[in-house]
Amino acid sequence: MRTYTRRIRDKWEAGERAYGATIQMPCAEAVEIAGYTGYDFVWIDAEHGTLDLGDINTLVRAADAVGVDAIVRVPDHTPSFIQRVLDAGATGIIVPHTSTAAIAQAIVQASKYEPEGTRGACPATRAVGHYTQDWIADYRRANRDTLVFGLIEDPEGVANVTDIARVGGLDGLVFGPFDLSMALGYEGDVAHPDIDAARTRIVEATRNAGIEFVAIAGFGSGGLAAAVAASGSRIINVTGDRGILVTVMQAQLDELKNSLISQPGKGQ
């Protein structure tokens, strides 16, 4: 019988924060390491990078194996892709460019079975144990536990965020400062005052609607950690596979080069 993880919801119910890591590369071992080192979820990024549905299925299996939630950032709000990701057994989805309440409503509908949504029903999928589960109990569990997050990263989304946050069935919102900075002409300057103002507006909208603000803490930044704490977020994306590899590999190379330079007669 298939067992289901609900680490994020369990953390919320216990009054604790859930911590996750982005996975952009098709590497199941990275998912396993995230689980072994204490993360609660992996954010499988199918919007950026080269992951296909086969890769997603493998990464979701790895998440199941180590008992962490698998949240998939889908490429867009196409219902068929959302359904296939959930049929693979993902715990939930993050949908980019959720810029209107209508889009938010559509992604909730695509993520929930009847009568709460329009997700296609099939008891043969991996998500329901390939015909081995109690269908009635399982689809009700899925409607209750599947996590649905919208990503606000456009000026239109920021303008509409109050209405978006009020859409029933939406569990939380994520802020995408980099895309917003590009849309506003700031060329990736995520520290611009207008970006901070947008973040504050999104945090307030989620708080007023009683849903979650999903924070992205960055890598090794105490200032961002303070901002995360101030937001009251209970679900935090801490780091990612590419960021860790670049940071650690570069640091170790630089350290060794600098050590060798300090030795007489030695260059790089």
Automatic annotation (TrEMBL):
InterPro entries recorded: Aldolase/citrate-lyase_domain (IPR005000), HpcH-HpaI_aldolase (IPR050251), Pyrv/PenolPyrv_kinase-like_dom (IPR015813), Pyrv_kinase-like_dom_sf (IPR040442)
Domain of life: Bacteria
Domain spans labelled HpcH/HpaI aldolase/citrate lyase: 29-214
Listed Pfam families: HpcH_HpaI
Gene Ontology cellular component list: cytoplasm
Entry keyword set: Lyase, Metal-binding
GO molecular function ontology, one term from the record: metal ion binding
Family: Belongs to the HpcH/HpaI aldolase family.
Protein's name in the database: HpcH/HpaI aldolase/citrate lyase domain-containing protein
Source organism: Mycobacterium saskatchewanense
Lineage of source species: Bacteria, Bacillati, Actinomycetota, Actinomycetes, Mycobacteriales
